[in-house]
Amino acid sequence: MSVKTLGQFIIEKQTDFPFSKGELSRLLADISIAAKIVNREVSKAGLVDILGETGKVNIQGERVKKLDVFANEQFIAAFKAGGEVCAIASEENDDIISINTDISKNAKYVIAIDPLDGSSNIDVNVSIGTIFSIYRRVSLKGAGVLEDFMQRGTDQVAAGYIIYGSSCMLVYTTGKGVNGFTLDPSIGEFCLSHPNIQTPKKGNVYSINEGNYLHFPDGIKKYLKFCQEEDELSNRPYSSRYIGSGVADIHRNLITGGIYIYPTTTKSPNGKLRLLYECNPLAFILEQAGGKASTGGKRIMELPITELHQRTPLFLGSSEMVDVAQDFMTKYSSDLI
Ligand code: AHG
Ligand code: MN
Ligand code: MN
User: Fold this and answer.
1) Which of 27, 92, 260, 295 has the fewest CB atoms within 10 Å distance of its CB?
2) Which range, 46-50, 116-120, 159-163, has the best average confidence (pLDDT)?
3) By residue range, what is the domain housing residue 127?
């Protein structure tokens, strides 16, 4: 059996970018190394009680770091050492991290990252993830600036996620389809396991935090009732599946078909999820896989961005399901879209 590693795949695909000098390929390789390190720590998370709780001092006299802090530091260190980006935006940092070192002086890219998504699941041994989004810088030289991140999702050069699940997988797109790689721990390499992922046009799974039901817009309340109705022809009722790790919910729906919704609520009138490092990269992947991503009315990737940690409602998944959910919003909550 022949195995194609992520490294081999990236080199092969480099010719898709005629003027590329390999910087993007090296950046993707940097991400994969940090991902392996984070995966190693995630897989030991259950041992924390034996080895020392987070926030306490471990037997080597070091403070045991929370995994989200650890993941953030690993990715930032990998990007600084790689020299391919001139700035980083992270969910864990209020401001951008500008980089201006000898090796980064010709850096063409900036990267936005959610280093650990689904962090409420860390302590209970449930899948978590990392999300990343890469843009070409708009500033001319030196350290990257905030303006480099104020680009629309349609300007993304590449985006992806890593899921630390029953297997560790890296899924990414450079705008020419979506490919998934599974980490083979015995050789320490991500191997191409899901070439050219296409999401089904419709599925029978809906993923939403129904505990917020009372605070949902009428369009969502009515759509949820539609999902729960009996209808043989359209395979309803759909199944409700919600892990609370966006990457895990969205990865499952990508493979099997389904819809993930994090709408506005009366408590969070802009939604919860962040446009730059959660919604835009996930939207890029889903669109590249034949799915859709919207606010319930507008295409996510065309939204203007004015703030680093800007929030937006998100409707993401199989195209026909997103269309139907949007129709409910148009009919019952047109004031909100
Ligand atoms: P993060 O852990 O990076 O803060 O993101 C969690 C996100 C998303 O992954 C998940 O689907 C959603 O928030 C869960 O939110 P609720 O607990 O409000 O449902
Ligand atoms: Mn997140
Ligand atoms: Mn996070």
Assistant:
1) 92
2) 159-163
3) 6-194
Say if residue 251 is in the same domain as residue 110. no
Report angle CA 283, 211, 238 to the nearest 5 degrees.
Answer: 60
Q: Please give the average per-residue pLDDT across 9-32, as a whole number.
A: 86
How far is residue 252's CA from residue 317's CA, in Å, rounded to a whole number? 10
Distance 244 CA to ligand 1 centre (A): 5
Please tell me the total count of domains within the chain: 2
**CA 92 to ligand 3 centroid distance, Å:** 7
User: CATH number of the domain that 316 lies in?
Assistant: 3.40.190.80
Q: Are residues 175 and 53 in the same domain?
A: yes
CATH of the domain at 121: 3.30.540.10
Whether residue 119 has its Cβ less than 6 Å from ligand 1: yes
Confidence band for 55, pLDDT divided at 50, 70 and 90? low
d(CA 300, CA 152): 9
Across the chain, what does the average pLDDT equal?
Answer: 94
Query: Quick check: CB of 209 below 6 Å from ligand 1?
Result: yes
Residue 68 CB–ligand 1 contact under 6 Å: no
* CA nearest ligand 1 atom 6, residue: 118
194, pLDDT greater than 80: yes
Name every residue whose Cβ is closer than 8 Å to that of residue 60 and which is 6 or more positions away in sequence: none
